[in-house]
Amino acid sequence: MKNFINLKDLPSSDLRKILFDAKKRKNRRKKLSTLDIDKDHPLKGKLLIQMFEKASSRTRLSFYLAIKQLGGGTLTLKSNEIHLGKGGESLQDTAKILSTYGDGFMLRTDSDDKINQFSKHLKIPIINGLSPSSHPTQVLSDVFTVEEIKKKPISNLNICWIGDSNNVLNSLIAASVKFSFKLNIGCPKNYKPKSFVLDWAKKNKGKIHIFHDPKKAIKNADVIFSDKVISLNDNVNIKKKTKDFKNFYINKKLLSYAKKNAIFLHCLPRGNEVSDEVFLGKQSHVWQQAYNRVHVQKSILLYCFGKLRQR
Ligand code: CP
Ligand code: NVA
Predict the structure, then answer these.
(1) Which ligand is in closest contact with the Cα of 267?
(2) 253 assigned to some structural domain
(3) Do 53 and 144 reside in the same domain of the chain?
(4) What residue owns the CA closest to ligand 2's atom 1?
(5) Which pTM does this prediction carry?
(6) Catalytic residues, which ones?
(7) Residue ranges making up the domain that contains 109
């Protein structure tokens, strides 16, 4: 049994194995319908319990399809509808109950500490489906999408992030170390990633470069990532933050500083950080990116359940 909480804590070789399995499984499903089960039905009879403390469309749907296609099933809980932390039920007891009924637990939460507490008390694997500090399933899937489209290892590409230093960027920084790719970050002066994230990257020989001029950050990029300026957990002055990011708006003009065949990716949902022309344009692959989460999360589930095989 393995947890999937943060990319920085997972061995690169395991992450590579997950991507390898995802590619094989995706190729084998070409003729199957949405709810058809993979031939080897490796998670037959298994239940994934999902719990969301905040909104989600893609993570919810893609995990639903992922476990279904592996032969298992899912149950989705809302934290305000169960006893967790209320009526005297401790997180420890809830963890025991989840372990009694289910085989795996996927949690989207406002608290990194809660994921860590659950990981201590659960007897089943836990997957981080977005926390304030990271979004590992999204970013591992994004590495898959980049390599699928570019048809080369991500380590041979110039990756660029234009936007806020949030949970998705933290995971992208972790991925840049694990997969050894160069990452340029374009963000306003007061919005750099937290020092514990940068210090970890530096200690682990990360190739991270921060620019406060978006044109410099995007120059020669093969892939441009972005995300909302205001995240779900952001407790900020929205007007001020939006204004601070004014120069980091991604439009055709800014994109023209990247390589001609550069691609644009965005985890969604989007805000006002990117023009429709870019988001819906030829260089954008955001829908393929969203769909690939099903494939990669299937292999993440297999990894957590100890069923990942190299074939
Ligand atoms: N990208 C992503 O995690 O989307 P949701 O918030 O809709 O799950
Ligand atoms: N950074 C965003 C990602 C949403 C998928 C948020 O946390 O809201």
Answers:
(1) 1
(2) yes
(3) no
(4) 231
(5) 0.97
(6) 108, 135, 138, 227, 267, 293
(7) 7-132+293-304
